[in-house]
Write a structure and sequence with these properties.
alpha+beta; five-stranded antiparallel β-sheet; 36% helix
Amino acid sequence: MVDYDEQDRRIAGVLGSDEVPEVNDQTLIAYLAYLRNSLSFPCLLTGIEDFEWEERYVFGHGSKSEYERLKESQPSHTDIFELLGFDEEIDQGYGILASVKRVKDKKSFTLPLADLRDRDEHSANYQLLDDYSVWFVNNR
């Protein structure tokens, strides 16, 4: 069960504010600096939900065989990724971009961090990433 008031306090604290601030270049840069200093490695990630390109297949409108073929070259929300680091540039639309390597075939991708979560729900990384995702999605 998520205590949303406590989560808001954590997020505001990360950004040095009394209230949860809006997402902008300055707050994204501050959040990125915080995550760089706070996340522990190795950090294994997976998708929170289907990635944008997967929607037509996950909701049954696309071919199952085509989806399986595309998952060989595209990242899937069901994949396991190792977090390698972050792009230097932030993106207003996608936020912090994560450099990841898919565990099963070592293919590298750049994915929006807000679309990812730690595989271990009991790790400190899980909460750090969840707080970031909630803030980014709800405060743009």
